Amino acid sequence: MRDLSILSGQCSSNQDTRLKILIKMKKSLLLFFLILIGLSGIAQTSLKDCINSALGSHPALKSGEYLGLINQKELENNNTHRLPSFNIGAQGKYQSDVVEFDFDLPFEGLSFPEIPHFQYNMSLYANQLLYDGGKRKLEKNLINVEHKERMAGLEARAREIKESVQELYLEILLRDKQLDVIQLLQRSVDVNLARLEAGYGGGVVSDMDVKLLEAEKIDMRRKLLTLREARNALIEQLALLCKLDLEPDDEFSIPEVSYILQAPERSEYDIFSYRNQALQLRKKMMGLKTIPRLSAFGQAGYGRPGLNFMSDEWQDFYVMGLRFSWIPWDYGETKRKQAIIDLNSMMLNYEQENFDLQLQSAIARVLSRIQLLEQIIKEDGRMVEVRELIRLSMEKRLNDGVITSAEYITELNREKQARLDLERSKLDLLANQLAYMVIIGK
Fold it and tell me: Which CATH number goes with the domain that contains 263?
């Protein structure tokens, strides 16, 4: 009977154990599904999405399509210069004096006509440019170059917008990391506070130790509120800049950056190139001022009198021919204007050299910062490991009553600062890597 009772007890114990395991498994599965449901409801936001949305919706960049239309209209206007021009004119006038003949013809029945004082004329004028030294072609090239310069200016503006988005995004990531660090250490404070409160009830722990941890817990809650408010404000700014519906509960992924050392491809170089091309085209156009021009012209009209001014009858008429014009001497005005253009071109070259110098300096500075941060992150990681071990040791000593809460809080704050320094260094490294890509025009 005793053996049966023992066996029965063992069976009962095994059943209880299995039941407890099943309950734990059900709880674990339920918790797993709840986490999945929660994660499915959280929106994931990436830096790439924010940049693309900002570049696609920012008002400063929407003028690109209008610049294309402007260029098209300017080219159409330039092409019309090759076509003949027409002009319609009419006039009526009274002349106080006309040509008169004071002698008679020696033939009977013949006399000079009387020229009318009232004269009328309506004409159609036509003019066709035949040769202008290539001025129209140069004007067309200048229109295209100026259009490219304006488009390159939009690319430079897009880079500035990209930098603004990256700055806000990284500030949000920094707030997220700060929240994670404080929440991690807050859980440690909660656990130790519960232990101290249990010991305080038994008279083992002093009231001061409990109050110190309660004060630290309150301070952490206050910092969490401040950080969340700052994060929400940054999210609102980012949503406004990117024209996105962002919520405080959204998660912001850490961007992956694979930067490669390469030559810069900034749009400012294109701007300098286009400006220099425009100057050279204007210089060539300036030189055409002293080039001969040839055009054909024609006139057809109806008037009284016509071309025969001695007739007082209404007549139709026409005139056609070639027109040649040339300014052989302008007192050196053209050469002086070309010299001014050369001086502007030299100044532009100096501006480009200055820009290149500043750009190379910025690249060297950010690469040096990246190398330094890589070393700092290694040291920060070692510091976090050491501070965590110290804090765990202090927790054990606190629970054993060897140290006070003040000493524990001191080490807790040191670990918190070490973790914050590590996360800040990581984000600083990310920021400099992104800055490098932006600086070189990628």
Answer: 1.20.1600.10
